[in-house]
Structure formats: structure tokens, C-alpha cells
Amino acid sequence: MVFESKWDKPILFNQVDKFGVFLYIPIKDTLGEIGCILHKGDEKNSVKDVYVNLEQFGEIWILQDSSQVFFENPFKRMSIY
Questions:
Q1: I need a labelling partner for 8 at 20 to 30 A (CA). Which of 14, 35, 63, 76 fits?
Q2: What is the per-residue pLDDT across 48-69, written as a single tens digit (0 to 9) for each?
Q3: pTM for the whole thing?
Q4: Distance (Å, whole) CA 58 – CA 27
């Protein structure tokens, strides 16, 4: 399955757990990096676009209103988990 999106037809978050909404995208080819822009309508989540090297990490976490990428549950680090 290939996931493609356009600005006016984004891939929507479609799952919810105790941390909030999330999207699971199975990726067949992990060579290189993927880019993602989180947005609501025409408003971007952050000023910077996010790029992740998939050869190194199996999952990413991005918090609302931030461009910082976490490679493990960021709530554990914040002591609110």
C-alpha cells in the first residue's frame, strides 16, 4: 500500500489512545527519509517541515505545535507517563 497525500487531501490521524490521536503507516521500503507536514486546514503545526531517516527509527512521535521529533514516547521523559 502506498500512502500519498496532497495539501488539500491529507492522510488523517485515524486512531486514538491515552496519548492522543495518531496515525500508523506501514512502510515497506525504509531506505532514505520521509518528510511530513502536520497541518490543520491551511495552518501548519510548526514552522519547520519534519524529515525522518527511516533506516534508524521504527516510529516517531511529534507533539502538537512542535517540530521536534521524538523516537520514543516523549511522555516518559516528561515524567507524566
A1: 63
A2: 777 887 777 777 888 877 778 8
A3: 0.62
A4: 10
